[in-house]
Specification:
The structure is a single chain. It is built from 1 helix and 3 strands; from the N terminus they run E-E-E-H. By secondary structure, it is an alpha+beta fold. It is elongated. The structure holds zinc ion (ZN). Zinc ion binds next to loops.
Amino acid sequence: MATFFCPHCKGKTKTRTSRGLSATLRELIYQCNDPECSYSFVVEAEAVRTLSPSGKPDPAINLPQTPWAQARTQEHQRADAEPLSTTT
Ligand SMILES: [Zn+2]
């Protein structure tokens, strides 16, 4: 679970509740540990990018690849391409 500090007093917080809004989005309610502050707030945690593809992919989930991961994949594709083709 991601640690969030209180936006107001910068103190430590704890998760009160969390609920899934979708397969990629979760809503978490944090509360400041400082009893004088006790600010509570909502954090949305969302899966936004793919680092490496799933071995059990869900067709409904289509997250864009992280640019550097994409660059690496393209490198692999280039390496697997026709060895006789020449680049000029
Ligand atoms: Zn606080």
